[in-house]
Design brief:
four-stranded antiparallel sheet; single chain; mainly beta; globular; six-stranded mixed sheet
């Protein structure tokens, strides 16, 4: 069974940082890109970032460039999203999904940026 489990969300003050984790199981992790998607309250899904299967290529939405860093540890079947300089606009539920097609999703982790 394919499973993706996000963790690391929480409440952070504006300007702060968080690191999200996405632990994967049930498939050959090395063979898949992993994508982060978020959903702000009352809004639709927004693509955040994708990392290729061999970590050679990383992609970011424009508003995340320079603030977010995606990485992966294939030995741990885990992808990370380091988020810096967080603002209220980053408040959302953050999901990780398998591949750029997002064929499987995790349950999400809440990130709230507030003073």
């Amino acid at each position: 069974e394919v499973q993706l489990v996000e963790s690391g969300g929480g409440l952070v003050k504006p300007g702060g940082s968080l690191r999200l984790s996405c632990a994967a199981s049930g498939f050959n992790f090395d063979n898949y890109a992993i994508t982060w998607v978020r959903q702000p309250p009352g809004k639709g899904l927004e693509w955040v970032s994708t990392i290729s299967r061999n970590e050679g290529n990383t992609y970011y939405a424009e508003s995340m460039k320079g603030r977010f860093t995606i990485s992966r540890d294939n030995a741990k079947n885990t992808v990370y999203l380091q988020m810096n300089s967080l603002g209220s606009e980053d408040t959302a539920v953050y999901y990780c999904a398998r591949s750029s097609r997002c064929d499987y999703w995790g349950q999400g982790t809440q990130v709230t940026v507030s003073s």
